[in-house]
Amino acid sequence: MDLAHSLRLIAPEETLSIASLVLLLVAAWSGDKASRLISILAVAVLVGCMALVAPALCYGLSGPDVAAFGGQYRADAFAAFAKLLIYGSSAAALIIAPAFFDRLGQMRAEYPVLILLAALGMGMMASAGDLLTLYIGLELNSLASYVLAALLRNDGRSAESGLKYFVLGALASGILLFGVSLVYGFTGTTSFAGINAALSGNLAAGALFGIVFVLAGLAFKIAAVPFHMWTPDVYEGAPTPVTTFFATASKASALALLMRVSLEAFGSQADAWRQIVIFAAIASIVVGALGAIGQSNIKRLMAYSSINNVGFVLIGLAVATPQGAAAMLTYLVIYIAMSLGGFVAILMLKDEDGRPLEAIADLSGLSRTRPGLALALAMIMFSLAGIPPLFGFWGKFVVFQAAVQAGFVALAAIGIAASVIGAFYYIKIVKIMYFDEPVDTVRGRSDWAHTALLVITAVFMSPLGYLLTKWLDGLAQTAASVLFLAA
């Protein structure tokens, strides 16, 4: 009965596993000519998995009834919130891919299968209740991601990004494993609940080192300073649909895992790791903002933007309160929508022959040649900068509000001041599109799927997004409260 209950709880992972194997066989038998059919089926599988996890969030499920395999896996409301973002972002990465790869003649049947396998690992990361589950999910996601980054075998940049991601990812995994071994050695358990209980007394020096190494390994996955060095090169070199996947689904899963580890496993020693998170938050905001200023490639600029936005999210984690965790989730939803819209707009920047344009100079005077695209991209840039009345402002507002309510006024003030630096390069993009002389290089026709996604994200970023604040904040608070039940 206990095994049957556990198997019911892992229904999304079972669905993804079986679907991945079946679609892999279809890919092996039919070859690349079946890539579109496999992509459509993969999107259907991801939508089905979203339907499977949604009830857990709607009903705010938590406690022992949602623990599977002795607590190693948790199908609670927090995991459901993260999985909805992961599966939705993964589906978007599949929808936008065919138009990009078909022009290059490199739409591979393996692409949707790799996305499904990566999503499977990400779901396990979000549901991890044990250090072993954490590592298995992390490695499953990472191995698929390394291949995705190097998917364009004839492109030197893609191969370089895959190699850099692999080497630095292996280093981060080693750091994480060393931290895991220290935590296990000083607590005697790999269970998050057991670690929380074992750390509730005096903190041994060895256990503190373990916490530091675990957080350092996870900081690589979210691209937080000082473990951000891979991000610009991988974002620029990887195929743009894959970069979109890294900026949305991968970011959501890594941040969800960091929240679960920090607040569930190490929650009783928040004072021990808070200084580390505060440093990473401020450094990420500043480095992300300053690093983006001199960029001439828009994908590299978006990479530094992601580093900058991770810093704002980490302010919510440093607070270590239910309000801070809920603010992180709210910010994450808005950020994923902004990133998705931004990279879809980048995919729509094509010349007459359909070749992608990535130079910021190619945006000159875009408002006069492609006014609709320029307007949507301007809204996304202003929203990323957190300028009201666009919806991106709300994400920063709830994070800073949580920090002030918890007494971290200085941290909030530094974050607000540093966000002004970041606004410079976002506004610079808008200035180039609206005030520079047109170069008229963006002439390629856009795919209907790209146009539809861009319109949806632009509407979400508009002031109309504020109509969703009560509903979104309610779901975020429901999900975040789960992490504090053991505290």
TrEMBL record:
Protein name, entry field: NADH-quinone oxidoreductase subunit N
Entry's EC annotation: 7.1.1.-
Bilayer topology: Multi-pass membrane protein
Organism from which the protein derives: Novosphingobium chloroacetimidivorans
Role played: NDH-1 shuttles electrons from NADH, via FMN and iron-sulfur (Fe-S) centers, to quinones in the respiratory chain. The immediate electron acceptor for the enzyme in this species is believed to be ubiquinone. Couples the redox reaction to proton translocation (for every two electrons transferred, four hydrogen ions are translocated across the cytoplasmic membrane), and thus conserves the redox energy in a proton gradient.
Origin superkingdom: Bacteria
GO biological process, one term: ATP synthesis coupled electron transport
GO CC terms of this entry: endomembrane system; plasma membrane
Reactions mediated catalytically: a quinone + NADH + 5 H(+)(in) = a quinol + NAD(+) + 4 H(+)(out)
Family affiliation: Belongs to the complex I subunit 2 family.
Stored NCBIfam families: NDH_I_N, PRK05777.1-3
UniProt feature coiled coil, ranges: none
Main location, first listed in the record: membrane
Sequence intervals crossing the membrane: 15-31, 38-57, 77-97, 109-128, 165-187, 207-230, 273-294, 301-320, 326-349, 373-394, 406-427, 448-468
Quaternary structure (record): NDH-1 is composed of 14 different subunits. Subunits NuoA, H, J, K, L, M, N constitute the membrane sector of the complex.
GO molecular function: NADH dehydrogenase (quinone) (non-electrogenic) activity; NADH dehydrogenase (ubiquinone) activity; quinone binding
Domain (NADH:quinone oxidoreductase/Mrp antiporter transmembrane): residue spans on this chain: 128-422
Record keywords, A-Z: Cell membrane, Membrane, NAD, Quinone, Translocase, Transmembrane, Transmembrane helix, Transport, Ubiquinone
Localisation per UniProt entry: Cell membrane; Endomembrane system; Membrane
Enzyme class, spelled out: translocase
